[in-house]
């Protein structure tokens, strides 16, 4: 499904809100996230603003590393002792909803979300037509490149095709200096699979079609072969691409330090790049994903995040949770017509997904770095949200990593990936 998106989204009418809340006694709710301390502090400040008009509701924020977030949700979700609110990746929603770990949104919230967010993003926050979460961020992938290294290598513009990508990667590689032309990521499912998938869709392919894996296509075969070509040519070094549980690590460090010429990454790492590079952040350019031999135009993979409410929480806690989330995501809660949530997201370089937030923040979204991501949203394809999606992603990660480390050929990787995906999705659908 194509994600219809434009920076000129119409300003959505109305402000999301539940009926005026009346609390018989103080209510304590908790919010589970994977955000860094400085972002948690912003969320805590927003909770304090909410408390000014809702003094009987106390919001506690808890953060865990991204690598622990889903495990925490699965082990504590549906339990009254678990977090009342959690931020989740859209890929996880089908299984969490199936297992009744998350609560359906109240009618007032569902109605507002359906009218104030793009349809594709609403769909990603829904299962079987039922809305389970309030969308907050939208993420998309683009080619990031170091303009200073390009200049040193005599490269005048970012590559537009795969042939140009391979040529630029070769010119940027300086093995004696520990410099790789093109960076690949490993040890993190999304970091491995999303860049590969972005190249796949930019080559006219798909991961899943009509609920069935499509990794046996010609376009997929060419994408696996591109990886093998880059690895065989020595323009990428898997030892430089490791990620840690916080989705940082060597892959980030090597790009920040100028040891990686190009890498495919999502918009949300803008804050990490700025923190690591300082004034040299201006050296970073953003460009569409290069088009493969079977592709017709640059495309990318997109995905979204949302906030959900624990189905096992008490009635008063659930009511307070939805009321807080309604306020947090409303235009009334933040500066200049943007929601408090959008302001928090923009502090990290993350694109907000509510239409009115996009309109209110269009000047900030037009920055050199983020504008490159906004420009590719219209042709982005959402990562498939299906039962078994997380297992499918982790399996594909393992196959791509085996290819990165030379343990399998491109043809073997393609055959293994398709066979594993068929088995996983068929089993999940039973």
TrEMBL record:
Signal peptide start and end residues: 1-24
Record field: transmembrane: none
UniProt entry tagged with the keyword Manganese: no
Principal cellular location given in the protein's record: periplasm
Highest taxon in the source lineage: Bacteria
GO cellular component annotations of the record: periplasmic space
Subcellular location(s) of the protein: Periplasm
Family: Belongs to the bacterial solute-binding protein 1 family.
Record-given protein name: Extracellular solute-binding protein family 1
Organism name: Mesorhizobium alhagi CCNWXJ12-2
Organism classification: Bacteria, Pseudomonadati, Pseudomonadota, Alphaproteobacteria, Hyphomicrobiales
């Amino acid at each position: 499904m194509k994600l219809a998106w434009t920076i000129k989204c119409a300003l959505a009418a109305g402000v999301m809100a539940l009926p005026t809340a009346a609390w018989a006694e103080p209510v304590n709710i908790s919010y589970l996230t994977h955000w860094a301390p400085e972002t948690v502090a912003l969320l805590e400040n927003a909770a304090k603003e909410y408390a000014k008009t809702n003094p009987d509701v106390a919001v506690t924020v808890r953060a865990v590393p991204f690598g622990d977030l889903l495990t925490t949700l699965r082990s504590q979700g549906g339990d009254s002792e678990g977090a009342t609110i959690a931020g989740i990746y859209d890929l996880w929603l089908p299984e969490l909803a199936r297992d009744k770990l998350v609560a359906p949104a109240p009618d007032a919230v569902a109605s507002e979300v359906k009218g104030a967010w793009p349809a594709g993003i609403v769909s990603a926050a829904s299962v079987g037509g039922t809305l389970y979460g309030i969308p907050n961020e939208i993420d998309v992938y683009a080619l990031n490149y170091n303009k200073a290294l390009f200049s040193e290598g005599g490269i005048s513009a970012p590559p537009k095709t795969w042939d140009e990508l391979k040529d630029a990667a070769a010119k940027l590689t300086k093995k004696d200096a520990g410099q790789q032309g093109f960076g690949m990521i490993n040890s993190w499912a999304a970091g491995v699979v999303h860049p590969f998938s972005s190249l796949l869709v930019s080559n006219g392919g798909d991961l899943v079609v009509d609920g069935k894996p499509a990794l046996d296509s010609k376009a997929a075969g060419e994408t696996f072969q591109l990886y093998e070509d880059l690895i065989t040519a020595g323009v990428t070094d898997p030892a430089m691409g490791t990620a840690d549980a916080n989705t940082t690590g060597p892959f980030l460090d090597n790009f920040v330090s100028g040891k990686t010429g190009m890498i495919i990454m999502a918009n949300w790492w803008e804050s990490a790049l700025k923190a690591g590079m300082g004034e040299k952040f201006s050296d970073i350019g953003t460009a569409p994903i290069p088009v493969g031999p079977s592709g017709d135009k640059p495309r990318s993979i997109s995905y979204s995040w949302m906030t959900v409410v624990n189905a096992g929480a008490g009635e008063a806690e659930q009511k307070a949770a939805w009321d807080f989330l309604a306020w947090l995501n409303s235009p009334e809660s933040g500066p200049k017509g943007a929601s408090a949530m959008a302001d928090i997201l923009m502090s990290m370089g993350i694109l907000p997904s509510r239409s009115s937030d996009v309109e209110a923040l269009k000047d900030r979204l037009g920055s050199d770095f983020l504008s490159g991501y906004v420009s590719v949203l219209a042709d982005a394809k959402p990562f498939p949200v299906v039962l078994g999606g997380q297992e499918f992603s982790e399996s594909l990660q393992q196959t791509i990593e085996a290819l990165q480390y030379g343990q399998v050929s491109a043809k073997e990787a393609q055959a293994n990936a398709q066979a594993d995906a068929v088995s996983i999705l068929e089993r999940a659908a039973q």
